[in-house]
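Quick one:
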Amino acid sequence: MDSIGHPIIGDPKYFSIENWEFPGGIQKRLHLHARRIRVPHPDGGMLDVTAPLPPHMVQTFNLLGL
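Output:
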């Protein structure tokens, strides 16, 4: 994402917290999440795992009106 000028919020390698003003309430934590992952199961079929957003990302999405 950094290569197109949009690093992931909170990524310590590519996102410079010092050079960005966090809007009120957005936590300085990594905002990267895999909502759903599907992988082949050894017994056949697919293993499908879904996870909810972590609380800090729910808060950020709400603050941004998403």
